[in-house]
Amino acid sequence: MRLEVFEASDKEGLEICLDLRHKIFVIEKNVPQSIENDEFDVLGGACRHFYIECDKVPVGAARCNESVPGQLRLQRFCVLDSYRGKGVGRYLMEYIEDFYRRQGITKIQLDAKFHIHGFYEKCGYTKASEIFMEADMEHVKMVKEI
After folding, report:
1. CB burial class (10 A; 0-12, 13-18, 19+) of residue 42?
2. Rounded to whole angstroms, how far apart are CA atoms 93 and 82?
3. Nearest CA to 84 among 111, 110, 122, 48?
4. Mean pLDDT, to the nearest integer, of 120-135?
5. Where on the phi/psi map is residue 48: left (φ > 0), alpha (ψ -120 to 50), or beta?
6. What is the Cα–Cα distance from 134 to 146, expressed in whole angstroms?
7. Residue 73: which residues within 8 A CB-CB, separation 6 or more?
8. N or C: which end of the chain has fewer CB within 10 A?
9. SS3 for the chain, per residue?
10. What angle do CA 122, 26, 58 make, to 5 degrees?
11. pTM of the entire predicted model
12. pLDDT band at 72 (very low <50, low <70, confident <90, very high)
């Protein structure tokens, strides 16, 4: 299994990210399209978009919101169901952490779906809030110093 991460630097790369997110969040998780996509889903804005390929097939994506100087909000982190539990998500997470560490970022924040917050704990994140509802799902804020 060969994993490779790419930053979406053109329209094609962004479409790969948005397509993966649609499959995972809208189709699989029943998140309304109107909530899943927003003003941050553009190139050259406050967010960078990344996707991961397994053997040249796109299987996961993440959006990294850089709107607060010195901090990063990891958003829309997702991996196709058939690739979960195989190290794909951890590989993408480590890539993003290394990328931003080199940019001088020292802290990453994210809102995790509560039922999968254990994945983020295994990646070194800690809970920073009580459970709250977002898109009709339980979430919890998590943080990590990198």
Report:
1. exposed
2. 18
3. 122
4. 95
5. beta
6. 26
7. 64, 65, 67, 108, 109, 110
8. N
9. CCEEEEECCCHHHHHHHHHHHHHHHHHHCCCCHHHHCCCCCCCCCCEEEEEEEECCEEEEEEEEECCCCCEEEEEEEEECHHHCCCCHHHHHHHHHHHHHHHCCCCEEEEEEEHHHHHHHHHCCCEECCCCEEECCEEEEEEEEEC
10. 60
11. 0.94
12. very high
Identify residue 23 by its one-letter amino acid code. Answer: K
Two structure tokens written together for 114: 């509560």
> pLDDT tens across 17-50, in order?
999 999 999 999 888 898 899 999 999 999 999 9
Tokens at 30, concatenated? 């029943």
Q: Tokens in use for 14?
A: 């962004």
